[in-house]
Amino acid sequence: PALEPHAVAGRMERRFALLINPFYAKSPHGSFGKHVLTPSLALTSIAGATPPDWRVEYWDENLLQGPPPIDPLPEVVGITVHLTFLKRACELAAWYRARGSKVVFGGLHMQSCPEEGAFHADAIAVGDGVPLWPVILRDVQRGALKSRYEATYERAYDLDPPPRRGLLSRESYLTTTSLIATRGCH
Question: Is 73 in contact with 9 (CB distance < 8 Å)?
Answer without folding.
Answer: yes
